[in-house]
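note to self: dont lose this again. the chain is below, predicted strucutre after it. 621 aa total, dont forget to put it in the shared folder this time
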Amino acid sequence: MARMANCPSCGAPVRLRSAVSVLAVCEYCRATLLDLDGKIENLGKMAELAEDRSRLRVDAQGVYGGRCFTVVGRIQLQYEAGLWNEWFLLFDDAGAGWLSEAGGAYALTFPCASPTGSPAFSAVRPGNEFVLAGTAWTVSNVERAVCVAGEGELPFRVGGGYPAPVVDLRAGKRLATLDYSDDAANPLFFVGEAVDFASLQWRNLREDIPGFTGATGRAKGLNCAQCGAPLELKHEGVLSIGCAHCGAITDTETEKLISRIEASRKVEPLIPIGEIGMFRGEKLEVIGFMARHSLEEGEREDWHEYLLARVGKPGYRWLTCYNTRWSLVDVLEELPARAGAAVVCRGQKFERSASYTGYVDYVLGEFTWRVRVGEEVFITDYVSLSSTLSAERTGKEITWSLAEPIPARDVKAAFSRARIEVGLGGQRSAAQGGARYRPMWLHFGVLAAILALLQVIFVLSFGNARDLASVDMPLIPSADFTTSLSKPFSLDHSASLEVDIRAEALDDDWIELGISLVEEDSGRSTPRQKVTLSRYATLDGAAEVSRLVRRAVFDSVPAGHWRLVVERIGGAASLKVAYSDIRSTSSLAVRRRGVLWSNFFACLFVLAAWPLAVLARWRVW
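---
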């Protein structure tokens, strides 16, 4: 049941709808009221909220998981990169939750019991892993934020300047927050998930957003902090803007200079700022352009990134260009799963490719954080046959993004004013190509060298062919020569044997022979193989059809004393001589491991399948 009181400062009615709320801000005079045991205490005036052009407001309503909720309060927090909002939600079943709003991304979390074994805030770093409440979490962000102001009703005491050290955690699609504001030893624990803004079925959203009406509306005007040139701020959540005239970067909140860029480092984007295009039915506007580079083993790699705002709804995407190859990139809400040195994301395995440091060279247009020239981020790339997964790490956060290559012709088709040469190559992300794939080719080279060394060893040890026995068999029909035996030969170990049969004296005739092996000591024999040889001239004598050389193969012949048995089954009415010989190649096991060069090249092709497929896709796109 709602509690009603009058503001002791201005007398206006103040309502607390949640049973867990202890603080309210008077919407008329912004007095901060503390309600403890039915006693209202005036804590003084709450600081003014910074204008962030959020679409949300107190009294907005939505639906989550079939449960209706109302926004009853807000905390506005500031950190190094900008502002974010924490909206306090009251559900119809009296439950409470928090909706985080930062840079066009939204996450809904619910308070849980503080877990035992929480790490100390000072010991936590991005990428750390630990178990809380039975779940293995990975640290994605560490911030020492400060509360700017609040409004509506809140479940704890807060005010302007109130410190808010927080740690964000990820576990697949789940996320959590450790809030160390009240008790450094026992932080508050919130667990939930990222949510799509439109899926919450909003009603009663804010409409009076000053100086902003969306991607196609009017812009807020401000001036460049360095040269004074007019700048247009058109999108929500933007905290910095690069000037096209002098290259300086201006803070959109304070209108102060963030960073300068030398005129010689100016880069002209291939797609103009303000261009709107369609990708897979989604309308996207280019609002920012950034030139970046990396230095890997002394080799410089340059690439460009375009920030795309979704038109008509919150959220952003990225378009990257490296060496005329393009990729459409999404920042992931879920955390990829580790699989040894590889990672798994959305059912696809990505192998680690390269790690390097990326630097910002030039900025133009709007960005959702306070970007600086020279800004550094450590990047690790993981590649699959179809896309690239990248982890970007700073001292405070780690962000994962998924890049999907797209043809240059699709980029040109989407943005009519884009200066893109179609047909000179495709597109890849900054994480792909050339030096990015050097570890993959290095691994392939090492494996190929090992395979070649093994092949040489096997050939030298087992692969030298040598004659074991031979049989001369006159093939003129005669009872004395229907069957011939070779001299005995010995096998010290199991081997695969080849019998070459030649009948070069055939002339317009044919012969069928039965070939088998007999072991002298035991009398056992191999199955008989039938071989037919022939030579026939055509009617006009201009050509002949010949099968004068054939081969019989006996796999896995055991050790022992063997003879070759040759039986004439039929044909050869005019033959004089047939000659056969037998030679050893290797043991069955060794032969199957690639003693033959054909097997070596087959194994080499299998090893090369993945890098060749990646290379083929790289060149196509």
